[in-house]
């Protein structure tokens, strides 16, 4: 099994989206690459902790490649927006690809280069090794499954296209 952490705005939709993809074994939402131990949601929302709302993804690369996982990721973000996605604004809503395996970096950079061809503005998505990841509070886990009409910046029809 392989692992990666992806930030793409509010983590509720990111998790719900990746939960629909064949080969994704496990997801959990949390806070990535910040500067405090065990942050709370309220602390992350102050824009002072450096954390991004993110989704940890464990996947079976015999079913889905990192390239395909990243192609799916690019479909749900505007990577040219800094510190926002949809109606959500703040540093915690930045886009980011946080890798655990250093061997994944070249694949990630190639994917970004390919995606950049679709935009005139530069892609501002962070690409960094994962420094830390803290699970979000339980009420955030699988939020859209528990609250099917909950807020999501990702168009719901995209959830159906990846099945």
From TrEMBL:
Question: Which residue intervals define the domain Peptide methionine sulphoxide reductase MsrA in the entry?
Answer: 3-153
Q: Which UniProt keywords apply?
A: Oxidoreductase
What Pfam families would the database entry show? PMSR
Q: Write down any Gene Ontology CC term.
A: cytoplasm
What the entry lists under SUPFAM superfamilies is as follows:
Peptide methionine sulfoxide reductase (SSF55068)
Record InterPro entries:
Met_Sox_Rdtase_MsrA_dom (IPR002569), Met_Sox_Rdtase_MsrA_sf (IPR036509), MsrA_MetSO_reductase (IPR050162)
Q: Which GO terms describe its molecular function?
A: L-methionine:thioredoxin-disulfide S-oxidoreductase activity; peptide-methionine (S)-S-oxide reductase activity
Q: Please list the residues that make up the active site.
A: 10
Catalytic activity reported: L-methionyl-[protein] + [thioredoxin]-disulfide + H2O = L-methionyl-(S)-S-oxide-[protein] + [thioredoxin]-dithiol; [thioredoxin]-disulfide + L-methionine + H2O = L-methionine (S)-S-oxide + [thioredoxin]-dithiol
Q: What is its EC number?
A: 1.8.4.11
Q: What class of enzyme is it?
A: oxidoreductase
Q: Name one GO biological process term.
A: cellular response to oxidative stress
User: What PANTHER family does the entry give?
Assistant: MITOCHONDRIAL PEPTIDE METHIONINE SULFOXIDE REDUCTASE (PTHR42799:SF2)
Q: What does this protein do, in the record's words?
A: Has an important function as a repair enzyme for proteins that have been inactivated by oxidation. Catalyzes the reversible oxidation-reduction of methionine sulfoxide in proteins to methionine.
**Family of this protein:** Belongs to the MsrA Met sulfoxide reductase family.
The name on file for this protein is: Peptide methionine sulfoxide reductase MsrA
